[in-house]
């Protein structure tokens, strides 16, 4: 019995568009707007990838059809799929809007074997939501996630107990969490190209190549040692939002508008979750795909849009000279050092913050009339980009 399933919607945004527009089925298409957000599998066969700019994608796939994103449709589809997950097991850990770990241990006596549970999960998502779902299963989270990736697209793969290493060891070393192109090359330099070769490698040699902590981590995964359990109701340690765009398409004013958009969304999510934050982080990705962050910790915890926005804009001002040289393809704002909103300590003589009535009024309008009902003046005319909240 595989205790853990990893369920992952295939090419999520693109699949929703193909579901709602049958003329796109079987065609090389992608969801995007300057930057590819989700290519269909037909487009992926031509080398089109997420985060690729449109010009490069069209060069690889001349007949590529690109459609504008519809975030509200994706949010609705995500909620419908997660309702099926929750109906399958009480132990569901969301990872993003389109994937989750599901603990099915103990359900065999009530429902049946893991293969039946996983097959029924895929059938329900296809029949009730109209989307393809890949499911992997195994004795650990790591094994389940690798199995679902191998099963893609629209597949099912359960690794039987006792055959975990038989499945893992022939796989390329890039299947290990934490192995990117740089680490993969370092391992290739010493002749290591498969998971099994990592498992057989002397620990001192592995640690010399990738570092002590990373070496221990990779050795554990190669032996399928992953003690993490499916966590339900885990509170997030950070809340963030980000936007992608083609390199060179955003100047300082445009970047400032994006900061307003994402900071507003982050602050609203804090208030929705009854949380406050002390640290604001600006996340940047440059034209060469390198990344950088800038952070500032506030004197007092906040849930104020104005405070988070002011801090993020100041961080952008500090980093702009680097951005101007290297170009920008992604900009995000995140907050961390979270606590319950009861942690706010009023300072004598207990003034009412000027931002609180404004934020509260905007939240109430959006809750009643929808996300696009009210916005900030600088964002007027822009389509709202709203993603569903994961359970907090």
Q: Which key phrases capture this entry?
A:
392 residues; Alpha-Beta Plaits; MutS, DNA mismatch repair protein, domain I; DNA polymerase, domain 1; 4 domains; 5-stranded mixed sheet; 5-stranded antiparallel sheet; 13 strands; 41% helix; globular
What does this structure look like?
Helix content is 41%, strand content 20%. With 392 residues, it is an alpha+beta fold. It has four domains: 4-8 and 89-164, Alpha-Beta Plaits; 12-71, MutS, DNA mismatch repair protein, domain I (3-Layer(aba) Sandwich), CATH 3.40.1170.60; 166-222, 5' to 3' exonuclease, C-terminal subdomain (DNA polymerase, domain 1, Orthogonal Bundle), CATH 1.10.150; 238-379, DNA polymerase, Y-family, little finger domain (Dna Ligase, domain 1), CATH 3.30.1490. The strands form three sheets. A five-stranded mixed beta sheet has the order 5-6-1-7-8. Strand 2 (29-32) and strand 3 form a beta hairpin.
CATH H-tier superfamily of the largest domain: DNA polymerase, Y-family, little finger domain
The CATH architecture designation of the largest domain is: 2-Layer Sandwich
- What is the strand content? 15-25%
When the domains are counted, the total is 4
- Number of DSSP helical runs: 14
Helix content: 40-55%
Give the biggest sheet. 5 strands, mixed
Number of strands: 13
Please name the CATH topology of the largest domain. Dna Ligase, domain 1
Structural class: alpha+beta
As laid out across the biggest beta sheet, the strand order is 5-6-1-7-8
- Whole-angstrom Rg: 23 Å
Distance between the termini: 29 Å
Specify the CATH class of the largest domain. Answer: Alpha Beta
Shape: globular
**How do the helices and strands follow one another from N- to C-terminus?**
EHEEHHEHEEHEHEHHHHHEHEEHEEH
**What number is the mean pLDDT?**
86
Low-pLDDT windows of residues: 347-352, 383-392
